[in-house]
């Protein structure tokens, strides 16, 4: 092993100098090692590509101000902030379509909350009258997801 | 020099620099190209084993680094003379879902063929029925098997609980047994009772400690393990140690020697590794591990720090940040209701999400995520304790819904179906990838791996650092007969 070999400690000292000083020209000569660096004009620190991040215009939340629903309609609402899914898996058949008859425990959609899937039941016996959101929509707590028109009470 | 009689006492090391250390500190983003230049020094450092793979490393390779994880495993096993250790989550392998036994078995065969010598396996519920298929197939493929028990704090996770798990693992014929403490909850006090009890129950099967540094107590905990008769400690190179990572090899090595134990560590090689990874961190803009200060709050909610900051930002998005303290108070109650799952992936997510739902909805268990119901029914394995009556009632789980058989039992074999779909000549490695991931995620893995560098020097790393700086337009470096200039 050569005694005068450059060590990682030496390198890290140089790294520290490069990072912490605002030089435009840098010359270092220690024993056998010589380093000469020149910074770009006017750049005193990190330079990064000027990537202007385009703010993605998020699809406007369809929730908006609460619209009115027919009297007696049962509203299935989002329990939490999350993502609305109409089917159990990508490409699978949706849980329900408009016109489908549901029982109180029929799963009508999934809300993904913090990566966990929440099956949302209809909570009423009736027919799916409206599905308000597209698959994959972001939802806020209380957003109406579906409207169920309840069956007339039996006698 | 230590006194006579200590001649036979040894303590050895399992390196986690290439796996858990960067998983904890660099979001698992260490590429194969960052590893290869320093493998020679890692081999010289005197480690007994080198851990090269775990669930997150496999997944990040595929999803984010677009590297074929099998190629990394093969290359590291070929290049390293030190035996390599690869970790899986048992019946879940690299994910949190369950796989059938035939996939678990094929995975063991592929490991052995690629050169893995130790299969390390754990189950997040400590249900050793989820570990059994890995132990069996690991042995059949010619590997040694290191079975881990996950440590957590709860009224049911007593010393007796871990003694019972240890005995199960001895019965399964594990070659090593490890205590894995993923959130750094072990204390020296607990180690003083737990470690000797587990050593005794292991009846000669060597023990390893794998504890993280969040509480700042891990180095002391390792000392207790060394004194209690543990044979190995999992550690990392100093710049990638501490914080959420594991203790530094340098530190634990010094402590072991002070306690009169011999180690095989080579200080010069360890210095080289540490210097190299510090340079990589500088070049790549990655953080270095900082020694964590003791924080008693960690023992109360047990939630990993990253998860709290994540939750805070989600609550911010709902303008509900002010509910965070209530949620943190609800967490231990939910955990009790759920039978004390370990507050770690994936169960940390369960507990925190359920606590958030309970608080935000203003009614406990109004909504229960499907995964939590499945967990509570025993679908993923046996729970540490019974869920509370309130929870079972709200979840509408009836005694007849409970799953009592081994989780792997209720999954049909997949290989016949996959072979049929992919053709009879598909390599086992590709078949497994197809079992774990949808096709589009695997497309990027087809790209050719870069030419890897297998050696480096400090000078070389200095030049790479300078080259990575966007603000340097001219550089001239001269050293011992080498002279180079470059300009942007």
Q: What best-fitting shape of chain B do the alpha-carbon axes yield?
A: globular
Strand content range of chain B: 5-15%
In helices, the fraction of residues of chain B equals: 40-55%
Average pLDDT of chain B, rounded to a whole number, is 93
Number of helices of chain A: 1
Task: Say how many strands of chain A there are.
Answer: 10
Classify the beta-strand content of chain A into a percent band.
25-35%
Structural class of chain A: mainly beta
Within the largest sheet of chain A, what's the order of strands?
3-10-8-5
Count of extended strands of chain B: 10
**How are helices and strands ordered from N to C of chain A?**
HEEEEEEEEEE
Per DSSP, the total helix count of chain B is 22
> Which bin fits the share of residues in helices of chain A?
under 10%
What's the multimeric state?
A: heterodimer
Outline of chain A? rod-shaped
Low-confidence stretches of chain A: 44-64
The spatial strand order of the largest sheet of chain B comes to 1-2-3-4-5-6-7-8
Major sheet characteristics of chain A: 4 strands, antiparallel
Measure the end-to-end span of chain B.
55 Å
Describe, in plain words, how this protein is organized in 3D:
The complex is a heterodimer of chains A (155) and B (488). By secondary structure, chain A is mainly beta. Chain A contains 1 helix and 10 strands. Chain A is rod-shaped and about 95 Å long. Chain B is an alpha/beta fold and 488 residues long. Chain B has 22 helices and 10 strands. Residues 1-6 of chain B have low confidence and may be disordered.
């Amino acid at each position: 092993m050569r005694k005068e070999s450059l060590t990682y400690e030496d390198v890290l000292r140089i790294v520290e100098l490069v990072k912490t000083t605002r030089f435009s020209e840098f010359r270092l000569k220690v024993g056998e090692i010589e380093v000469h660096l020149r910074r770009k004009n006017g750049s005193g620190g990190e330079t990064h590509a000027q990537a202007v991040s385009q703010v993605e215009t998020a699809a406007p939340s369809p929730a908006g101000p609460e619209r009115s629903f027919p009297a007696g309609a049962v509203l299935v609402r989002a329990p939490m902030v999350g993502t609305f899914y109409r089917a159990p898996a990508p490409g699978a058949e949706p849980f329900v379509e408009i016109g489908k008859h549901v029982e109180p425990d029929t799963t009508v959609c999934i809300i993904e909350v913090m990566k966990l899937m929440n099956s949302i039941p209809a909570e009423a016996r009736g027919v799916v009258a409206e599905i308000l959101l597209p698959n994959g929509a972001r939802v806020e707590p209380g957003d109406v997801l579906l409207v169920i028109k309840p069956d007339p009470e039996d006698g | 020099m230590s006194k006579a009689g200590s001649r036979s006492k040894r303590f050895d090391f399992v390196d986690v620099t290439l796996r858990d250390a960067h998983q904890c500190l660099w979001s698992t983003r260490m590429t194969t190209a960052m590893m290869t230049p320093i493998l020679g020094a890692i081999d010289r450092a005197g480690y007994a084993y080198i851990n090269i793979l775990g669930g997150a490393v496999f997944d990040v390779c595929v999803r984010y680094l677009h590297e074929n994880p099998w190629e990394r495993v093969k290359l590291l096993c070929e290049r390293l003379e030190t035996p390599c250790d690869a970790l899986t989550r048992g019946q879940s392998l690299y994910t949190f879902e369950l796989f059938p036994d035939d996939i678990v078995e094929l995975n063991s065969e592929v490991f052995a063929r690629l050169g893995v010598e130790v299969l390390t396996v754990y189950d997040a519920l400590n249900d050793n029925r989820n570990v059994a298929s890995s132990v069996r197939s690991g042995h059949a493929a010619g590997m040694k098997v290191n079975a881990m028990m996950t440590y957590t704090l709860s009224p049911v996770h007593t010393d007796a609980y871990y003694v019972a798990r240890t005995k199960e693992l001895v019965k399964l014929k594990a070659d090593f047994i490890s205590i894995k403490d993923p959130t750094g909850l072990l204390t020296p006090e607990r180690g003083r009772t737990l470690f000797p009890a587990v050593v005794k129950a292991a009846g000669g099967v060597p023990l390893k400690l794998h504890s993280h540094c969040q509480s700042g107590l891990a180095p002391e905990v390792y000392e207790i393990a060394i004194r209690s008769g543990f044979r190995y400690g999992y550690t990392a190179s100093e710049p990638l140690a501490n914080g959420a990572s594991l203790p530094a090899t340098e530190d634990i090595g010094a402590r072991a020697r002070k306690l009169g134990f011999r180690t095989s560590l080579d200080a010069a090689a360890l210095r080289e590794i540490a210097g190299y990874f510090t340079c990589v961190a500088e070049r790549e803009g990655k953080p270095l591990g900082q020694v964590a200060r003791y924080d008693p709050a960690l023992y109360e909610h047990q939630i990993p720090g990253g998860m709290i900051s994540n939750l805070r930002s989600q609550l911010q998005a709902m303008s509900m940040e002010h509910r965070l303290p209530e949620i943190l108070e609800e967490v231990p109650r939910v955990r009790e209701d759920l039978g004390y799952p370990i507050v770690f992936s994936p169960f940390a997510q369960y507990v925190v999400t359920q606590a958030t739902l309970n608080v935000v909805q203003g009614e406990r268990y109004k909504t229960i995520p499907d995964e939590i119901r499945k967990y509570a029914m025993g679908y993923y394995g046996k729970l540490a304790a019974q869920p509370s009556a309130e929870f079972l009632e709200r979840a509408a789980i009836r005694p007849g819904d409970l799953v009592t058989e081994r989780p792997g039992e209720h999954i049909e074999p997949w290989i016949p179906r996959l072979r049929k779909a992919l053709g009879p000549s598909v390599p086992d490695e590709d078949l497994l990838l197809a079992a774990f991931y949808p096709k589009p995620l695997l497309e990027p893995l087809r790209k050719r791996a870069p030419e890897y560098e297998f050696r480096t020097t400090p000078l070389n790393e200095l030049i790479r650092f300078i080259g990575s700086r966007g603000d340097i337009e001219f550089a001239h470096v001269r050293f011992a007969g080498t002279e180079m200039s470059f300009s942007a």
